[in-house]
Amino acid sequence: MMKTQNNQQKTSNKKQSAACATCPAHNAGNLLKLGVNMDNWDYVVALAGNPNTGKSTVFNALTGLRQHTGNWPGKTVTRAEGGFSYGGKQYKIVDLPGTYSLLSTSLDEEVARDFILFGQPDVTVIVVDSTRLERNLNLALQVLEITDRAVICLNLIDEARRHDIQVDERRLTRDLGVPVVPTAARQGEGMQELLKAIHDVATGQFVCKPHRIKNESPAIKRALAQLVPQLEEAFPNLPNARWVALRLLDGDQRIAEAIQNGELGDLDAHAPVQPEQDSELQLTMA
Ligand SMILES: Nc1nc2c(ncn2[C@@H]2O[C@H](COP(=O)(O)OP(=O)(O)OP(=O)(O)O)[C@@H](O)[C@H]2O)c(=O)[nH]1
Ligand SMILES: [Mg+2]
Q1: Residue range 103-132: average pLDDT?
Q2: How confident is the model at residue 131 (pLDDT cuts 50, 70, 90)?
Q3: Residues sharing a CB contact under 8 Å with residue 263, sequence separation 6 or more, in sequence order
Q4: Residue 122: closest CA among 255, 27, 245
Q5: What pTM, to 2 d.p., does this model score?
Q6: Which atom of ligand 1 is the closest one to the Cα of 58?
Q7: Are 44 and 121 in contact (CB under 8 A)?
Q8: Above 70 in pLDDT, residue 227?
Protein backbone atom coordinates (compact mmCIF):
# COMPACT_ATOMS: atom_id res chain seq x y z
CA MET A 1 0.00 0.00 0.00
CA MET A 2 2.74 2.38 1.08
CA LYS A 3 4.72 1.45 -1.96
CA THR A 4 1.83 1.99 -4.37
CA GLN A 5 1.16 5.50 -3.12
CA ASN A 6 4.82 6.35 -3.27
CA ASN A 7 5.03 5.13 -6.82
CA GLN A 8 2.00 7.18 -7.76
CA GLN A 9 3.63 10.25 -6.29
CA LYS A 10 6.84 9.54 -8.18
CA THR A 11 4.94 9.04 -11.42
CA SER A 12 3.13 12.33 -11.10
CA ASN A 13 6.43 14.10 -10.33
CA LYS A 14 7.92 12.61 -13.43
CA LYS A 15 4.98 13.68 -15.57
CA GLN A 16 5.29 17.21 -14.26
CA SER A 17 8.99 17.49 -14.99
CA ALA A 18 8.66 15.86 -18.40
CA ALA A 19 6.02 18.42 -19.36
CA CYS A 20 8.15 21.33 -18.19
CA ALA A 21 10.45 22.50 -20.99
CA THR A 22 11.82 25.40 -18.95
CA CYS A 23 12.65 23.43 -15.78
CA PRO A 24 16.26 22.45 -15.09
CA ALA A 25 17.01 19.00 -16.53
CA HIS A 26 20.05 18.11 -14.43
CA ASN A 27 20.06 15.32 -11.90
CA ALA A 28 21.11 16.99 -8.65
CA GLY A 29 21.46 13.67 -6.81
CA ASN A 30 23.76 12.09 -9.35
CA LEU A 31 25.69 15.37 -9.70
CA LEU A 32 26.38 15.34 -5.98
CA LYS A 33 27.80 11.84 -6.32
CA LEU A 34 29.98 13.21 -9.12
CA GLY A 35 31.21 15.90 -6.72
CA VAL A 36 29.15 18.81 -8.08
CA ASN A 37 26.94 20.56 -5.54
CA MET A 38 24.07 22.42 -7.17
CA ASP A 39 22.90 24.35 -4.08
CA ASN A 40 22.50 28.02 -5.09
CA TRP A 41 22.95 27.29 -8.80
CA ASP A 42 20.20 27.22 -11.42
CA TYR A 43 21.85 25.29 -14.23
CA VAL A 44 24.90 23.15 -14.89
CA VAL A 45 26.84 23.27 -18.15
CA ALA A 46 29.37 20.64 -19.26
CA LEU A 47 32.20 21.49 -21.64
CA ALA A 48 33.12 18.58 -23.89
CA GLY A 49 35.38 18.31 -26.91
CA ASN A 50 38.41 16.71 -28.53
CA PRO A 51 41.77 17.49 -26.90
CA ASN A 52 43.28 20.86 -27.79
CA THR A 53 40.15 22.44 -29.27
CA GLY A 54 40.16 25.34 -26.80
CA LYS A 55 37.86 24.01 -24.06
CA SER A 56 39.89 25.57 -21.26
CA THR A 57 40.13 28.84 -23.18
CA VAL A 58 36.33 28.88 -23.58
CA PHE A 59 35.99 27.97 -19.90
CA ASN A 60 38.26 30.86 -18.86
CA ALA A 61 36.49 33.31 -21.15
CA LEU A 62 33.11 32.37 -19.62
CA THR A 63 34.12 32.22 -15.97
CA GLY A 64 36.96 34.73 -15.57
CA LEU A 65 38.17 34.42 -12.00
CA ARG A 66 35.10 32.51 -10.78
CA GLN A 67 36.73 29.09 -10.98
CA HIS A 68 38.67 26.47 -9.07
CA THR A 69 40.28 23.12 -9.82
CA GLY A 70 40.09 19.81 -8.02
CA ASN A 71 39.90 16.12 -8.78
CA TRP A 72 36.99 13.98 -9.92
CA PRO A 73 35.81 11.99 -6.88
CA GLY A 74 37.93 8.86 -6.50
CA LYS A 75 39.89 9.59 -9.70
CA THR A 76 43.24 11.11 -10.51
CA VAL A 77 41.69 13.14 -13.31
CA THR A 78 41.69 16.90 -12.60
CA ARG A 79 38.61 18.97 -13.05
CA ALA A 80 38.05 22.69 -13.43
CA GLU A 81 34.74 24.04 -12.20
CA GLY A 82 33.52 27.61 -12.39
CA GLY A 83 30.49 29.82 -12.66
CA PHE A 84 28.89 32.71 -14.45
CA SER A 85 25.58 34.52 -14.40
CA TYR A 86 23.49 35.29 -17.43
CA GLY A 87 19.91 36.49 -17.81
CA GLY A 88 19.48 36.52 -14.04
CA LYS A 89 20.43 32.83 -13.75
CA GLN A 90 23.43 31.24 -12.04
CA TYR A 91 25.31 28.77 -14.19
CA LYS A 92 27.85 26.28 -12.94
CA ILE A 93 30.24 25.07 -15.63
CA VAL A 94 32.44 21.97 -15.59
CA ASP A 95 35.41 21.45 -17.96
CA LEU A 96 35.39 17.75 -18.97
CA PRO A 97 38.55 15.90 -20.04
CA GLY A 98 39.29 16.20 -23.77
CA THR A 99 38.37 12.96 -25.59
CA TYR A 100 37.98 11.65 -29.13
CA SER A 101 35.09 9.39 -28.18
CA LEU A 102 32.77 8.49 -25.32
CA LEU A 103 33.15 4.73 -25.52
CA SER A 104 34.54 4.61 -22.01
CA THR A 105 37.75 2.88 -23.04
CA SER A 106 39.94 5.24 -21.00
CA LEU A 107 39.56 6.97 -17.65
CA ASP A 108 39.08 10.33 -19.39
CA GLU A 109 36.37 8.95 -21.65
CA GLU A 110 34.64 7.34 -18.70
CA VAL A 111 34.66 10.58 -16.69
CA ALA A 112 33.28 12.60 -19.61
CA ARG A 113 30.63 10.01 -20.47
CA ASP A 114 29.47 9.47 -16.88
CA PHE A 115 29.11 13.18 -16.34
CA ILE A 116 26.87 13.64 -19.38
CA LEU A 117 24.98 10.40 -18.84
CA PHE A 118 24.33 10.50 -15.10
CA GLY A 119 24.68 14.22 -14.30
CA GLN A 120 22.26 15.13 -17.08
CA PRO A 121 23.73 18.64 -17.54
CA ASP A 122 21.21 21.27 -18.58
CA VAL A 123 23.49 22.09 -21.52
CA THR A 124 26.55 20.32 -22.91
CA VAL A 125 28.76 22.66 -24.93
CA ILE A 126 30.73 20.68 -27.50
CA VAL A 127 33.84 22.64 -28.44
CA VAL A 128 35.00 21.71 -31.94
CA ASP A 129 38.00 22.79 -34.01
CA SER A 130 36.56 24.55 -37.09
CA THR A 131 39.62 23.56 -39.13
CA ARG A 132 39.09 19.86 -38.37
CA LEU A 133 35.34 19.54 -38.46
CA GLU A 134 35.15 16.06 -39.96
CA ARG A 135 37.21 14.56 -37.18
CA ASN A 136 35.57 16.64 -34.42
CA LEU A 137 31.98 15.94 -35.41
CA ASN A 138 32.50 12.30 -34.49
CA LEU A 139 32.52 13.17 -30.79
CA ALA A 140 29.78 15.75 -31.30
CA LEU A 141 27.47 13.07 -32.75
CA GLN A 142 28.28 10.74 -29.85
CA VAL A 143 27.39 13.45 -27.33
CA LEU A 144 24.14 14.12 -29.21
CA GLU A 145 23.22 10.45 -28.81
CA ILE A 146 23.38 10.79 -25.02
CA THR A 147 21.89 14.22 -24.45
CA ASP A 148 19.39 16.29 -26.37
CA ARG A 149 20.53 19.54 -24.78
CA ALA A 150 23.67 20.76 -26.49
CA VAL A 151 25.36 23.71 -28.16
CA ILE A 152 28.19 23.37 -30.68
CA CYS A 153 30.97 25.90 -30.13
CA LEU A 154 32.68 26.23 -33.50
CA ASN A 155 36.00 27.37 -32.05
CA LEU A 156 39.23 28.46 -33.75
CA ILE A 157 37.09 30.15 -36.38
CA ASP A 158 39.97 32.65 -36.86
CA GLU A 159 42.21 29.75 -37.89
CA ALA A 160 39.53 28.48 -40.27
CA ARG A 161 39.30 31.92 -41.88
CA ARG A 162 43.07 32.05 -42.19
CA HIS A 163 42.95 28.76 -44.10
CA ASP A 164 40.04 29.93 -46.25
CA ILE A 165 37.71 27.40 -44.70
CA GLN A 166 34.13 28.60 -44.59
CA VAL A 167 31.70 26.89 -42.28
CA ASP A 168 27.99 27.37 -42.88
CA GLU A 169 26.88 27.46 -39.26
CA ARG A 170 23.20 27.94 -40.11
CA ARG A 171 23.17 24.81 -42.22
CA LEU A 172 25.04 22.96 -39.48
CA THR A 173 22.47 24.12 -36.90
CA ARG A 174 19.72 22.80 -39.14
CA ASP A 175 21.47 19.50 -39.82
CA LEU A 176 22.53 18.82 -36.23
CA GLY A 177 19.39 20.18 -34.56
CA VAL A 178 21.28 22.20 -31.94
CA PRO A 179 22.62 25.79 -31.90
CA VAL A 180 26.03 26.22 -33.57
CA VAL A 181 28.06 29.29 -32.58
CA PRO A 182 31.31 30.36 -34.30
CA THR A 183 33.92 31.55 -31.77
CA ALA A 184 37.55 32.53 -31.45
CA ALA A 185 37.80 32.04 -27.70
CA ARG A 186 41.39 33.28 -27.39
CA GLN A 187 40.25 36.67 -28.71
CA GLY A 188 36.90 36.55 -26.89
CA GLU A 189 35.04 36.54 -30.21
CA GLY A 190 31.54 35.00 -30.16
CA MET A 191 31.37 34.63 -26.36
CA GLN A 192 28.19 36.71 -26.02
CA GLU A 193 26.51 34.63 -28.71
CA LEU A 194 27.68 31.46 -26.96
CA LEU A 195 26.25 32.64 -23.64
CA LYS A 196 22.93 33.39 -25.30
CA ALA A 197 22.81 29.97 -26.98
CA ILE A 198 23.57 28.24 -23.64
CA HIS A 199 20.84 30.27 -21.97
CA ASP A 200 18.33 29.53 -24.74
CA VAL A 201 18.88 25.78 -24.44
CA ALA A 202 18.95 25.78 -20.61
CA THR A 203 15.71 27.73 -20.35
CA GLY A 204 13.95 25.78 -23.09
CA GLN A 205 13.73 28.74 -25.47
CA PHE A 206 15.64 26.67 -28.01
CA VAL A 207 14.36 23.11 -28.08
CA CYS A 208 17.06 20.89 -29.56
CA LYS A 209 16.23 18.10 -31.98
CA PRO A 210 19.60 16.38 -32.17
CA HIS A 211 20.52 14.48 -35.29
CA ARG A 212 20.88 10.77 -34.60
CA ILE A 213 22.32 8.47 -37.23
CA LYS A 214 20.20 5.36 -37.69
CA ASN A 215 22.07 3.01 -39.93
CA GLU A 216 21.95 -0.22 -37.95
CA SER A 217 21.74 -3.64 -39.55
CA PRO A 218 18.26 -5.22 -39.77
CA ALA A 219 19.09 -7.58 -36.86
CA ILE A 220 20.06 -4.69 -34.57
CA LYS A 221 17.00 -2.77 -35.74
CA ARG A 222 14.79 -5.67 -34.68
CA ALA A 223 16.50 -5.88 -31.28
CA LEU A 224 16.11 -2.12 -30.79
CA ALA A 225 12.44 -2.29 -31.70
CA GLN A 226 11.98 -4.65 -28.75
CA LEU A 227 14.31 -3.09 -26.24
CA VAL A 228 13.69 0.65 -26.72
CA PRO A 229 9.95 0.59 -25.84
CA GLN A 230 10.72 -1.46 -22.73
CA LEU A 231 13.33 1.07 -21.60
CA GLU A 232 10.98 3.95 -22.33
CA GLU A 233 8.26 2.33 -20.31
CA ALA A 234 10.53 1.66 -17.35
CA PHE A 235 12.24 5.09 -17.50
CA PRO A 236 9.83 7.61 -19.02
CA ASN A 237 12.30 10.50 -18.68
CA LEU A 238 15.24 8.82 -20.39
CA PRO A 239 16.37 11.15 -23.20
CA ASN A 240 18.55 8.49 -24.83
CA ALA A 241 16.76 5.14 -24.74
CA ARG A 242 18.16 4.15 -28.13
CA TRP A 243 21.73 4.81 -27.08
CA VAL A 244 21.23 2.93 -23.81
CA ALA A 245 19.70 0.00 -25.73
CA LEU A 246 22.68 -0.07 -28.09
CA ARG A 247 25.09 -0.09 -25.14
CA LEU A 248 23.17 -2.97 -23.54
CA LEU A 249 23.27 -4.94 -26.79
CA ASP A 250 27.01 -4.25 -26.81
CA GLY A 251 27.31 -5.86 -23.35
CA ASP A 252 28.33 -2.65 -21.56
CA GLN A 253 28.48 -3.73 -17.89
CA ARG A 254 28.49 -0.20 -16.51
CA ILE A 255 25.20 0.62 -18.25
CA ALA A 256 23.59 -2.67 -17.18
CA GLU A 257 24.62 -1.88 -13.60
CA ALA A 258 23.20 1.65 -13.85
CA ILE A 259 19.86 0.24 -14.90
CA GLN A 260 19.82 -2.31 -12.12
CA ASN A 261 20.75 0.12 -9.35
CA GLY A 262 18.38 2.84 -10.59
CA GLU A 263 21.15 5.33 -11.37
CA LEU A 264 19.86 5.72 -14.90
CA GLY A 265 16.21 5.60 -14.02
CA ASP A 266 16.40 8.23 -11.33
CA LEU A 267 16.21 11.11 -13.75
CA ASP A 268 13.66 13.27 -12.03
CA ALA A 269 15.42 16.59 -11.47
CA HIS A 270 13.27 17.39 -8.48
CA ALA A 271 13.42 14.04 -6.74
CA PRO A 272 15.34 14.01 -3.45
CA VAL A 273 18.70 12.21 -3.47
CA GLN A 274 17.62 9.66 -0.92
CA PRO A 275 14.07 10.11 0.31
CA GLU A 276 13.99 10.18 4.05
CA GLN A 277 12.02 7.52 5.83
CA ASP A 278 9.91 10.13 7.63
CA SER A 279 8.79 11.96 4.54
CA GLU A 280 7.76 8.68 2.94
CA LEU A 281 5.58 7.95 5.93
CA GLN A 282 4.04 11.40 5.88
CA LEU A 283 3.24 11.07 2.22
CA THR A 284 1.47 7.81 2.78
CA MET A 285 -0.47 9.01 5.76
CA ALA A 286 -1.63 12.27 4.19
N1 LIG B 1 43.84 30.89 -32.78
C2 LIG B 1 43.10 30.45 -31.77
N3 LIG B 1 43.70 29.75 -30.78
C4 LIG B 1 42.93 29.30 -29.77
C5 LIG B 1 41.53 29.53 -29.72
N6 LIG B 1 41.05 28.95 -28.61
C7 LIG B 1 42.09 28.37 -27.99
N8 LIG B 1 43.23 28.60 -28.68
C9 LIG B 1 44.58 28.11 -28.35
O10 LIG B 1 44.59 26.70 -28.52
C11 LIG B 1 45.47 26.10 -27.57
C12 LIG B 1 44.71 25.03 -26.80
O13 LIG B 1 43.71 25.64 -26.01
P14 LIG B 1 43.12 24.99 -24.68
O15 LIG B 1 42.07 25.90 -24.21
O16 LIG B 1 44.20 24.62 -23.75
O17 LIG B 1 42.49 23.67 -25.29
P18 LIG B 1 41.84 22.44 -24.50
O19 LIG B 1 40.76 21.92 -25.38
O20 LIG B 1 41.47 22.86 -23.14
O21 LIG B 1 43.04 21.42 -24.46
P22 LIG B 1 43.13 20.09 -23.56
O23 LIG B 1 42.57 20.41 -22.21
O24 LIG B 1 44.60 19.81 -23.54
O25 LIG B 1 42.36 19.06 -24.27
C26 LIG B 1 45.98 27.22 -26.68
O27 LIG B 1 47.24 27.61 -27.16
C28 LIG B 1 44.95 28.33 -26.92
O29 LIG B 1 45.49 29.62 -26.71
C30 LIG B 1 40.93 30.26 -30.80
O31 LIG B 1 39.72 30.48 -30.87
N32 LIG B 1 41.77 30.69 -31.79
MG1 LIG C 1 41.91 21.99 -21.23
Answers
A1: 93
A2: very high
A3: 30, 118, 257
A4: 27
A5: 0.85
A6: 15
A7: yes
A8: yes
Going from the Cα of 282 to the center of ligand 2, the distance in angstroms, rounded, reads 48
List C-alpha distances in Å: 256 to 142, 171, 203, 264: 19, 37, 32, 9
**Residues within 6 Å of ligand 1 by CB:** 49, 51-57, 98, 155-156, 158-159, 184-186
In the structure, ligand 2 is a single-atom ion and the residues with CB under 5 Å from it are 55-56
Across the range 142-152, mean pLDDT stands at: 95
Which of 1-5, 82-86, 144-148, 182-186 has the lowest average pLDDT?
Answer: 1-5
Predicted local distance difference test score (pLDDT) of residue 3: 41
Cα(98) to centroid(ligand 2), Å: 7
